[in-house]
Amino acid sequence: MSTHHQLYYHFVFSTKNRSPYLQPETQATIFEYLGGTIRGLDAIPVCIGGWVVHVHILAKLRPTHCICDFLQKLKSNSSKHFNEESGLIRKFAWQEGYGAFTVSPNQTEGVIRYIQNQESHHRKETFQKEYVRMLDLAGVEYDPEYLWI
After folding, report:
1. Is 0.90 topped by the overall pTM?
2. pLDDT number for residue 87
3. Smallest Cα–Cα separation from 59: which of 12, 11, 116, 27?
4. Which H, E and C letters describe 124-147, residue by residue?
5. Where are the alpha helices (DSSP H) in the chain?
6. 35: number of CA atoms within 13 Å, CB side?
7. Cβ atoms within 10 A of the Cβ of 103, count?
8. Over the stretch 22-72, which tens digit does the pLDDT of each residue have?
9. Reported confidence tier of residue 3, pLDDT bands at 50, 70, 90
10. How far apart are the C-alpha atoms of 5 and 110, rounded to whole Å?
């Protein structure tokens, strides 16, 4: 029998110390580079967005991908590029952790709309509140004491 899959993941992670590196004038460049890196890792970037201190990525992965390895490569390759090649940002880094949420194929349109509306969304809610709400909605257990380390 063949292998069939629809593995969509919604990844969320912030800049190191939630530094406001993702300014409107640099977002397009950063998000495009992330998309290219995702393609280079043999995955499909469906939607990439975020606001000032964090990024949301909806991507379709293969069964052979290891989420931890995939995100480590994505984050290290992109931060190296932003620091060494783009000339846009100095001392750029992503936080060490991340959120990874599975998405049913029939829910991808809603996630895409959510990612595309980050700017207006964050006029009302901070990244920290958004992230905790996402964890709670997904039923992810966490210790608030260690959430922002």
Report:
1. yes
2. 64
3. 11
4. CCCHHHHHHHHHHHHCCCCCHHHC
5. 24-40, 67-84, 108-116, 118-121, 127-138
6. 11
7. 19
8. 988 889 989 999 999 999 999 999 999 999 999 999 999 999 999 999 999
9. confident
10. 20
CA-CA distances (angstroms) from residue 100 to 31, 43, 63?
A: 18, 15, 15
pLDDT tens-digit series, residues 108-125? 999 999 999 998 888 899
Residue with tokens 């959120």: 99
3-state helix, strand, coil in the chain (%, to 5): 45, 20, 30
Q: What residue type is assigned to position 93 of the chain?
A: A
Sheet with 44-51: list strands edge to edge.
44-51, 54-61, 7-14, 99-103
